[in-house]
Specification:
single chain; elongated; about 150 residues; mainly alpha
Length: about 150
């Protein structure tokens, strides 16, 4: 399969653009929150909007637009999207909460003696609002590509 076939895959392109936009949007939103530019959020997980949700939503919606929302391909894409969104909002969010508790315990221990352990990443998952923003971004990008396909 030539690389041009991948580049002509509008569903794949829309999904990757939705993911990229979600990552890029994190920089100014993080700046508003922290008042400093942090380019590291371009490659980080977590934050607003959810790039995982944007990616799989654009993919599923793009498959639905191309193959039909009653197709087996859409059913598979939708189930995958549901699993990823659930993971982004549920399991990964809880892992982030656990990391916050563990980090607080380390700080407490460190206050008693010079324990200087690296902290765990706390922002692993997404709030429901972040997931919703990612889903909406995915739909908007896939819809824009659908309008260009026709």
């Amino acid at each position: 399969m030539p690389i041009s076939a991948l580049l002509d895959n509008n569903t794949l392109t829309a999904a990757l653009i939705a993911w990229t936009l979600a990552q890029v949007i994190k920089v100014p939103l993080d700046f508003v929150r922290t008042k400093r530019v942090n380019w590291a959020v371009l490659l980080s997980v977590g934050g607003m909007p959810s790039s995982h949700s944007s990616l799989v939503t654009a993919m599923a919606y793009g498959v639905g637009l191309r193959a039909g929302f009653d197709s087996q391909m859409f059913a598979v894409a939708m189930i995958l999207a549901i699993v990823v969104v659930y993971d982004a909002a549920g399991i990964r969010r809880q892992a982030g909460k656990h990391a916050a508790v563990i980090n607080a315990m380390i700080e407490d221990l460190a206050a008693g003696h010079p324990l200087k352990e690296e902290q765990l990443r706390e922002v692993l998952g997404h709030t429901p609002l972040q997931v919703l923003a990612g889903i909406l971004l995915g739909i908007i990008v896939a819809q824009a590509f659908w309008m260009l396909w026709r």
